[in-house]
Amino acid sequence: MRTRWVCPDAPLRSGVCLAAGLGLGAVGLLAVWARDWLGAGAGVPVVAMTVFATAMLLVAGAAGARHPFPRFGSANVVTTLRLVLVSLIAALAMAPGTARAAWLAVVVTALVAILDGVDGWLARRSGLASQFGARFDMETDALLILMLSVLVWSFDKAGWWVLACGWMRYAFVAAGWGLPWMSRPLSPTVRGKAVAVLQFVGLATALAPPVRPPVSEGVAALTLAALAWSFAVDVARLWRAEGAG
Q: What is the DSSP letter of 209?
């Protein structure tokens, strides 16, 4: 979420700070519980809280520059809750690669996916839908896909190539820094939303304990292929728009 840093106005600042503070506390409590339940080390809460705090710093900067409303809004609070859960998934990379840890990641991913439709509905209902909220939601999804791909690899469900599922979004953004035509805004599509959901389902399925190699590798490969196709379509759309311009 690249943006210039602008301090939000007082009501918005209060909302962001409250969401960040409560979210950080929730992350800490969940991560400590996960650490004890999984028999993991101190790295689990440290990683979870670091990921969440770093992400919320970026959110605060983007809110000051791009949030068009005076309050943070319930939809962004739900997205913050999703970020809490994604931060917990990120910390599971520090836990032993046991079936218990894998099931926890699968269940938490399902919760994140369920909440994915709630924040958009709340934004539309409250009249607080914005490009900021859509970007916050999208970047939370991208972080989830990255963390799931790391877990699929670290739990020996697929080779290092599965990490491309997580890094493809960031490579696309980085390409826009050097190629201005790739940084043009893209309108949302049903295809893009469907492929994003497929990433959640595919990577979580590959991670599930009953799914073992080579089946998990096949599921991960199909998931990656769908994402590569979707990004190729987006690049083609941007290239045609550049030619038309």
A: T
Q: What is the pLDDT of residues 190-224, one digit of tens each?
A: 898 899 999 999 999 999 999 999 999 999 999 99
pLDDT of residue 204: 97
Domain assignment of residue 2, yes or no? no
Mean pLDDT of 45-51: 97
Instruction: Tell me the torsion sign for CA atoms 161, 167, 173, 178.
Output: negative
- The residues, any chain, with a CB within 8 Å of residue 11's CB and separated by 6 or more, are 70, 71
Tell whether 157 is covered by a domain: yes
Number of domains the chain contains: 1
Integer Cα distance of 34 and 28 in angstroms? 10
Cα(143)–Cα(94) distance, integer angstroms: 16
Among 208, 220, 213, residue whose Cα is nearest residue 165:
220
Q: Are 223 and 203 in contact (CB under 8 A)?
A: yes
Alpha-carbon distance of 178 to 208, in angstroms, equals 38
pLDDT (tens digit, 9 = 90+) per residue, 85-118? 999 999 999 999 999 999 999 999 999 999 988 8
1 within a domain of the structure (yes/no): no
Q: Which range of residues forms the domain containing residue 180?
A: 10-240
Nearest alpha-carbon partner for 50 in 15, 90, 10: 90
